[in-house]
């Protein structure tokens, strides 16, 4: 989805570790995940924008958020198709579509084809990979 011609933000592991909490680093830089029903923003109801915790890129709007019951914040569409990049994830003996921030390559979560209309997609995100900016 992301434009391959856009130059990604580059930082060393030392720079990322200095900027992020250990949990943010584990999830965004080491492709980790938070336990279901434990992350921030799962029950967030305010209007606003969810941004990448690493670089601040706007990723999702609150009006695309829905309660999927999966234990992670879920959205049916990114704020802009250029905001995220998709990758094949073959870990854990399955094939899934990983999503990352298009600007800094931060691991955000996965997208599944079982979401609501109008897209039919469920972007399942680690809340720890995001910040929230209220309108």
Automatic annotation (TrEMBL):
The MsrB domain, residue ranges: 13-135
Q: Please give the PANTHER family that the UniProt record associates with this protein.
A: METHIONINE SULFOXIDE REDUCTASE, METHIONINE-R-SULFOXIDE REDUCTASE B1
Q: Which SUPFAM superfamilies match?
A: Mss4-like (SSF51316)
Q: What is its EC number?
A: 1.8.4.12
Q: Which GO terms describe its molecular function?
A: peptide-methionine (R)-S-oxide reductase activity; zinc ion binding
- Protein name per its UniProtKB record: Peptide methionine sulfoxide reductase MsrB
Lineage of the species this protein comes from: Bacteria, Pseudomonadati, Pseudomonadota, Alphaproteobacteria, Hyphomicrobiales
Record HAMAP family? MsrB
> What does the UniProt cofactor note say?
Binds 1 zinc ion per subunit. The zinc ion is important for the structural integrity of the protein.
Q: Does the keyword NAD apply?
A: no
Q: Which residues form the active site?
A: 124
Q: Where does Zn(2+) bind?
A: 52, 55, 101, 104
Catalytic activity line of the entry? L-methionyl-[protein] + [thioredoxin]-disulfide + H2O = L-methionyl-(R)-S-oxide-[protein] + [thioredoxin]-dithiol
Biological process GO terms, please?
protein repair; response to oxidative stress
Q: InterPro entries recorded for this chain?
A: Met_Sox_Rdtase_MsrB, Met_Sox_Rdtase_MsrB_dom, Mss4-like_sf
Family the UniProt entry places it in? Belongs to the MsrB Met sulfoxide reductase family.
Keywords of the record, alphabetical order, are: Metal-binding, Oxidoreductase, Zinc
Q: Which Gene3D superfamilies match?
A: Peptide methionine sulfoxide reductase
What's the cofactor?
Zn(2+)
Kindly indicate whether the keyword DNA damage belongs to this entry: no
Q: Which PROSITE patterns match?
A: MSRB
- Listed GO cellular component terms? cytoplasm
């Amino acid at each position: 989805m992301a434009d391959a011609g856009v130059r990604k933000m580059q930082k060393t592991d030392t720079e990322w570790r200095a900027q992020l909490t250990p949990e943010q680093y584990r999830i965004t830089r080491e492709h980790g995940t938070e336990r279901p029903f434990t992350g921030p923003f799962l029950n967030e109801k305010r209007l606003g924008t969810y941004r990448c915790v690493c670089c601040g890129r706007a990723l999702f709007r609150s009006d695309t958020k829905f309660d999927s019951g999966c234990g992670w914040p879920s959205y049916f569409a990114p704020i802009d198709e250029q905001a995220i990049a998709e990758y094949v994830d073959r870990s854990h003996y399955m094939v899934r579509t990983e999503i990352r921030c298009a600007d800094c390559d931060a691991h955000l979560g996965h997208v599944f084809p079982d979401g609501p209309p109008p897209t039919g997609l469920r972007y399942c995100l680690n809340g720890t990979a995001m910040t929230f900016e209220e309108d």
